[in-house]
Design brief:
By secondary structure, the protein is of the alpha/beta class. 34% of the residues lie in helices and 30% in strands.
């Protein structure tokens, strides 16, 4: 039998839960997904073999730590179905400009003529199904269609989707960073799966506070798909990484948070060029002056 466990939390806590489940329960065959439910909350769903929902709930709570566990948890026994296959089935390929993000279950059916990125659900944040990731891919497609970028940086890479997209489309080395060591491990595996391991250089780092990031600067393209508050805090450290005429792509924010983020970068002389919206989420394109 299969037990479905559903956690509901704000994004940072939901991501922590999803990464714990992926890290500690992948070997047992658990299928994990992370999806937005509304503007304030995210759902983490885990499908595991078993017939005792209370025992599974206790196991998850013990692993996550009772003191810090605040996300509501609902567990239920499901009818006999291949829920791993079912969870993959509903995650259809995502199209964004020249890019097509798909899972391994669609590997043999995706069309030719696209830049294909294979990432399975249950990894670190960024399977392409959330509007922030898909929106960034669409914006990147437009940008690289109009200009050649030679030194891109992906901050908060998550599953590595954006870094992989840049490496495949630009055929140039990409530096990708994440504060989370689990995300770095997952992104490294995804880069290898997509045959760009030699082009995507992954490091664990907190924003600009890393010698490798500083050594490779300045960057003509910086992408950061994180959240509004950390994006604001990072403005004084991200802006100096940009080359003159460099482009900054920011996402992970709602339209109501746009003005605050734009103002934070305007103080660093990085100006808004265009704001895009995809399924209620904003993607900002900003630019540092060329002179």
């Amino acid at each position: 039998m299969t037990v479905k466990a559903t956690f509901t939390a704000a994004y940072p806590e939901a991501r922590r839960i999803a990464e714990f489940l992926e890290r500690d329960h992948a070997e047992s065959g658990a299928a994990v997904s992370l999806s937005e439910t509304d503007a304030q909350s995210w759902a983490v769903e885990a499908y595991v073999d078993g017939d005792d929902p209370e025992a599974i709930a206790a196991m998850f709570k013990d692993g996550l730590g009772a003191d810090g566990f605040a996300a509501p948890l609902h567990v239920e026994v499901l009818a006999d179905t291949d829920w791993v296959a079912e969870s993959q089935r509903v995650l259809a390929p995502v199209s964004a400009g020249r890019f097509l993000v798909h899972g391994s279950h669609d590997r043999d059916t995706v069309p030719a003529g696209r830049v294909l990125i294979e990432v399975d659900a249950g990894e670190a944040f960024g399977t392409g199904h959330h509007a922030t990731t898909a929106g960034c891919l669409a914006v990147i497609d437009r940008l690289i269609g109009a200009r050649r970028f030679a030194n891109p940086l992906d901050i908060g890479t998550g599953s590595g989707v954006l870094a992989i997209a840049l490496a495949k489309a630009l055929r140039t080395p990409v530096l990708a960073t994440d504060i989370d060591p689990v995300a770095v491990r997952v992104a490294r595996a995804n880069a290898a799966l997509n045959n760009v391991a030699s082009q995507v250089h992954l490091i664990q780092a907190n924003g600009r506070d890393n010698a490798e990031i500083r050594r490779r600067a300045p960057y003509d393209l910086v992408v950061a798909n994180i959240l509004a508050e950390p994006l604001c805090r990072m403005a004084p450290t991200l802006a100096p990484l940009l080359a003159r005429d460099g482009v900054l792509v920011l996402s992970g924010l709602l339209p109501g948070q746009r003005a605050r983020v734009v103002a934070a970068y305007a103080e660093q002389r990085v100006a808004l060029v265009k704001a895009h919206t995809r399924d209620g989420w904003s993607v900002l394109v900003l630019k540092r002056p060329g002179v």
